[in-house]
Amino acid sequence: MDVNPKISKRDPKISERDPFSTLADSLLYIIVSFLPFKEAVRTSILSKQWRYIWRSTANIELDESFFVNHEESDQIREERRRDFLEFAKEWIRSYQEPTVKNFAFSCSKPGKFLTVIQEFIKFALKRNTKGLALDFSDPEWKENDTPSGALNLPSEFYKHVSLESLKLVACNLDVSAFNFRNIKDLSLGWIELNESSMKTLLNNCPLLESLCLKNCWNMFQLIITDTINPRLKKFVLEKCIFFGGPNWVYIDGPSLRFFKYSGLVGYFKMENQRCIEEAELDFGSEPEFDMLGDLLCELLEQLFSAKVLTVDSVFLQVVPCGTEPLRTSNPLNTKHLILKTSIHNNELLGIKFLLESCPFLETLTIDLGPSRIFPDYVPPFQFTPAYCWTRDLVLHKCLMRSMKVIEVKGFKGTMNELLFLKYLLVLGLLLEELKIYLSNDVDEDGNNIETYRKRAMERVLPSIISSKKLQINFMN
Question: What range(s) does the FBD domain occupy (predicted)?
Answer without folding.
Answer: 397-475
